[in-house]
């Protein structure tokens, strides 16, 4: 047997290595091309279904579109189809402003203002990039002068009387005819809207901006006090380092201000994906402005004994626990796909059409670069698996995404997994949304896909 010379062996290794590098580069390019193809096809379908007449859902679904489009532009800044997407969105935003102004604000719910306020901030960001300053300013005023002001004046509980935790935000109507309840989503929305407005105002040196920081701080105090009351399990632990925030805080004792099981109908153990993402988003904001927060609190609430290092640790700990909670309990071990927690209150006929979007909302925030860095878990393989499931289960003739994108056998295994971890679960996997208007359903389902696509693009 002849000996292979060292020179030939090195040549062989060199060729093999370069072939492997070239193959990897081709595979990576193919993956990026596939992601862009998915993105354009998904947006084109969204253009066909976004213009529906449901106030809060329209606000939320378009926010998903804006965050997705921003990610696409950052990824493919010179791509003609992506650039056309930005132009299309400008026209859609003009229509959205007309749509919003058709409504009497007094007839709307506190949650509605949160969704539209957040969407308006992202609309402004989008429009400023295009040089559409006048239209951008209209959305800024919509977010601050209308949405935030209404939530502050009509939904926030300014009295110190509620037990065991004072203040917080109700999900009643703007006219005050229905007070509603202090559930997680309405409080997270006020927290997040306040923190996001403040960050923009700080960056642009907007006058009178401390009122937004004040409200964000008040909401942090409300959440933090509840989290410290471990006997009520509002931040319910799954393990020592994993937890999820329940749909609302409940404290059933005489004189408690947190006993309502309505609006929407509540059941023990109810937890919703969307809440997790928004709370992480708000806490991420607060960490980014903690120097300003320290100065403000010491000047305005000197008796609170605010310590920036303690706050930093508390906020980071909550974010990390929620991140681990999502990875542990809201991802199926059997297929790595992100799931909605199996709670009848989310899936059932009363409000299934409202909670359907939760998986997308959660990843709109957990998929953002700033939030990802704080999570202490890696959800990239779960985003990839979820996107593939959404894409594979779509109506291929229209590229319309579906409410369910996982199979029954795996769903049953996931429900049992969740039951073991959370201690309670409902045997439910199909969204009861038969009474939901078809265009509304199409728009919401498409927005879930856009949210997951946005998270995938940022990986």
UniProtKB/TrEMBL annotation:
It comes from the Bacteria. This is Glycosyl hydrolase family 76. It comes from Carboxylicivirga marina.
